[in-house]
Amino acid sequence: KYDFSTRIRQVNPSATQQIADKAKELSQRGEDVISLGVGEPDFDTPVEVKECAKEALDDGFVHYTSTKGIRELREEIVGKLEEENQIDAGIEDVLVTPGGKFSIFLVCQAFLDENDEAILFDPAWVSYDECVKLAGAEPVWSETNANLKPDLEDFKDKINDSTSLVILNSPCNPTGQVYDESTIKAVTEIARENNCLVMSDEIYEKIIYEKEHYSPGSEYDNVITVNGFSKTFSMTGWRLGYTVAEEEVIDEMKKIQQHSVSCPTSFAQKGAVCAYKNKEIESKLEGMVLKYRKRRDTLLKGLKSLDIECTKPEGGFYAFPYIGTDSFKVSEELLDKCHIGVTPGKAFGDGGKGYIRISYAQSEERIKEAIERIRKTELEYI
Ligand code: PLP
């Protein structure tokens, strides 16, 4: 009946959403579903952040802001970048967007043309692929090794004159892997030798365990950094993220923001100012990361007791166990027979097809219960 555009027809619906919808449907029917599928913190937004946003509402801060985001927030972001990431940026080098995802979308729109290629490390977060396609370009998958880290030899093979963008994501969704500084540097240098930009998605930088986070934007000028408030401050519904790049780049991206969403939400930005400004929140974050780490350990122990192989996740709140068979069948079976929602690894690229992604943004009790349900159920695929 409708003559949809070629562009929209080649975009796939989010696979992470599909399974979450099915799990929600089961819950609504009264089933006790353990949701380990969605990439969303189960913690609440810090109360201080909420208070600032409420104050802004009460003060009537309810109108459009400047397209790039309020100055106060960009100043806080600049301070944060300098202190925590050693990234030297000015306030005109920052674009606040409605979510980190929109930053990624804008970077793709700004730099990708038809026949351009963008390299992703396989497996990669579901939206990169689609954002690249929405810009008319071709996603090219570069392999990762047995530890789910970039295979530099394969990367060198894949990068070519048509490559315009390389997407790095550490800590990584879906694998939970944190790439070493040397790996990130090598990728960035190879990209630079090929006149290629790197988009470094650092949205999980604060949720990290044994490793240190490294921002390539601190040393290389071919890097665009993307970050946001969703994961660190449990603010997914606030829709706030940002891009850091040279002013010339930001101003090009700004044009699309201007003509699509105008600006990020006014009072949400005031809340985000507080997230970076209020130092008490820092200690709360430490407590949150400790909890995630404990949950990860509980999950790893449980998986081991079930003889399921899993490379130890070093950041984010995802584990990516190897199940060896069709990840869609396994995920469906876990939902149908155990009422556990996970995400099929294949949704993140061919490299993930023998894996499932388990989000441990869930209480320890529920994680333990999930393991017991699997133990007690006769499963065909695990
Ligand atoms: N990047 C990665 C790797 C993510 O997993 C997500 C959210 O799931 C985002 C970016 C975007 O987050 P948001 O748009 O909520 O800032």
UniProtKB/TrEMBL annotation:
Coiled-coil residue windows: none
Pfam families: Aminotran_1_2
Documented EC number(s): 2.6.1.-
Positions of transmembrane segments: none
InterPro entries: Aminotransferase_I/II_large (IPR004839), AspAT/PAT-like (IPR050596), NHTrfase_class1_PyrdxlP-BS (IPR004838), PyrdxlP-dep_Trfase (IPR015424), PyrdxlP-dep_Trfase_major (IPR015421), PyrdxlP-dep_Trfase_small (IPR015422)
Record key words, sorted: Aminotransferase, Pyridoxal phosphate, Transferase
GO molecular function, a single term: transaminase activity
Necessary cofactors: pyridoxal 5'-phosphate
GO biological process annotation, one example: amino acid metabolic process
Gene3D superfamilies: Aspartate Aminotransferase, domain 1, Type I PLP-dependent aspartate aminotransferase-like (Major domain)
Enzyme superclass (EC): transferase
Domain of life: Archaea
Signal sequence annotation: none
Domain Aminotransferase class I/classII large: 32-374
SUPFAM superfamilies the UniProt entry points to: PLP-dependent transferases (SSF53383)
Keyword Transferase carried by entry: yes
PANTHER family associated with the record: ASPARTATE AMINOTRANSFERASE (PTHR46383:SF1)
Family: Belongs to the class-I pyridoxal-phosphate-dependent aminotransferase family.
Assembly notes: Homodimer.
UniProt name for this protein: Aminotransferase
